[in-house]
Design a protein that fits this description.
The protein is an all-alpha fold. It is 84% helix and 0% strand.
């Protein structure tokens, strides 16, 4: 007997389609318009933006609090308390956003020139508006991701037009830094409109101290793992700035890594779309494992395809996009693209841990990765420059992936991964989607 009826299947497929469409639009906008912005700013000014985003990202966990998928899961399992769950999550994230703003600006003020600190401040304003992403959690739990997708597509279009105008009038760096806040605020406004059309109202949201304690308790492993993850994933730009003392090198590194990271929307979108289905099949372990194997297969073969394309066309594409202003970008890209495999697989594995209520293992995963990555960065960046930063990420990511596969539940981890290498799983997914 099928685990879900035809309507539910259509919802999952439709949800996946809309989320992939939104992420695809984000990538297209990032490549077409983002590259024009990068070329206009140059490596030094783009380096300041990259550095500022890195500082903020490390502290972002104090605003997100690891609540993203956790709130979705709680809405799926305790839907009758949805207004308390959403309202509590909103106020927790709002207060956290103020902490992030203060922490990021204080860190930059102690170490950086006033202009850099001002850019960090402008970028950090976006964190406040991101508190309203709790509306997206509701849409995910209802398998209505298309509303968030449409909201984001509209935001991207408007933002792209404004950025092109900024380039045309030769706007200063500060204007581009404000775009992060504009995008977050505009996206929150459009999501609110869809939320209201669904018959939902923000005035129904309620903060509940008991709910806050429960969410915080459940999120502690996610907070710790996310903080460690953000630390090692964004420490590269900060350490490059500290060791090399050259924002131009930060910009060169960021330009190459930016294009490589463009594909990371794929695992995030797919996992967010299928997460409700994984949770809803919790009473059928065999079926859950089958779906997990198929998900792993999508992640593995999708990432390998991207890696192959990057290695073949990397020099041509990156050189065409950035031109002579970023000579190091193609080399950085062709190394950085190899991170796709552990990133894709790790996203699916993390979702699986959350579905199984085993969030604590996410912390162990990130701690191992952070240890090897940061130690490698301290050793390689002073000796190899920005190339050393990329190799450090590869060392940490691949070691962690194979370590988890071998150590965590040996009868489940590595065998499922090996079964996922069979491309027949992809065909099963296609046949399932066509039904």
């Amino acid at each position: 007997m099928e685990e879900v009826n035809l309507k539910e299947k259509n919802n999952y497929v439709s949800n996946s389609f809309w989320m992939l469409l939104e992420k695809s639009a984000r990538v297209i906008s990032g490549i077409l318009v983002g590259v024009l912005v990068v070329r206009y700013l140059g490596d030094a000014q783009f380096g300041v933006i990259t550095y500022g985003l890195g500082v903020i990202a490390i502290l972002t966990i104090f605003s997100t609090l690891g609540l993203d998928s956790l709130v979705v899961r709680e809405l799926l399992t305790r839907g009758k308390n949805k207004y308390e769950i959403i309202g509590t999550a909103f106020w927790m994230r709002f207060v956290g956003s103020l902490i992030v703003m203060g922490g990021a600006c204080f860190y930059s003020l102690m170490r950086d020139p006033p202009q850099t600190t001002f850019i960090v401040f402008l970028l950090s304003i976006s964190i406040i508006f991101q508190s309203f992403t709790v509306i997206d959690f509701y849409f995910q739990s209802e398998v209505k991701g298309k509303f968030t997708a449409i909201s984001q597509v509209i935001t991207l279009f408007v933002s792209a037009i404004i950025k092109l105008v900024f380039i045309f009038i030769k706007a200063p760096l500060e204007w581009f830094a404000t775009m992060a806040a504009f995008e977050a605020g505009f996206a929150a406004f459009t999501q609110f409109i869809f939320y209201k059309k669904e018959g939902q109202m923000i005035r129904y949201w309620r903060f509940n101290l008991k709910e806050a304690k429960l969410l915080l308790y459940l999120a502690i492993p996610l907070i710790l793992s996310s903080f460690v993850q953000m630390l090692y994933q964004n420490a590269d730009t900060i350490l490059i700035a500290r060791f090399l003392r050259d924002m131009g090198q930060v910009g060169q590194y960021g330009a190459g890594a930016r294009i490589s990271q463009a594909s990371y929307f794929i695992p995030v979108a797919i996992c967010a779309a299928v997460f409700p289905g994984i949770v809803n099949n919790r009473d059928n372990k065999e079926l859950q494992i089958k779906r997990l194997t198929q998900l792993y297969s999508l992640m593995i073969w999708g990432s390998l395809t991207i890696i192959a394309g990057g290695m073949i066309f990397g020099d041509l594409v990156i050189g065409f996009l950035y031109g002579a202003k970023f000579p190091a970008a193609p080399h950085i890209f062709k190394i950085h693209i190899w991170l796709s495999l552990p990133i894709f697989w790790g996203t699916a594995w993390g979702m699986w841990m959350l579905a199984m209520h085993e969030q604590k293992y996410l912390f162990y995963l990130q701690l191992i990765n952070a240890t090897f990555t940061l130690v490698s960065e301290y050793m390689l960046i002073p000796r190899m420059g920005i190339t050393g930063a990329v190799y450090a990420l590869l060392i940490g990511s691949y070691f962690t992936m194979f370590f988890i596969l071998i150590i965590y539940k040996p009868r489940e981890g590595l065998p499922i991964f090996l079964k996922a290498l069979n491309p027949k799983n992809i065909l099963e997914v296609i046949r399932y989607s066509k039904k």
